[in-house]
Amino acid sequence: ATAxxxxxxxxxxxxxxxxxxxxxxxxxxxxxxxxQHQLGKYKEAIDYFNRALEIITxxxxxxxxxxxxxxxxxxxxxxxxNNYEGARSDLENALEIxxxxxxxxxxxxx
Length: 110
Fold this sequence. Notes:
The protein is 77% helix and 0% strand. It has 110 residues and is mostly helical.
């Protein structure tokens, strides 16, 4: 995956310029998680999603739509690891956040 080294360089740059806890670092960590998921590396994806969620939650609060999106992706990776209870919890939480922030008819919800 050619995207992975690009994201890793971007993350290094963000860490150097904006810091490890900046929301841009959270975005890049989430994107690395998406690449890991696409590569079938679901446990690694979950680790990146968790790191991204920690940053984004601190930056925007636990009811922000990005928290919902990132939690949804984490739930999908949990399901791929056969952690169905964790997946269900994540997906239900994500749906609740996304409905509250984007509405029931938004393309990311419907």
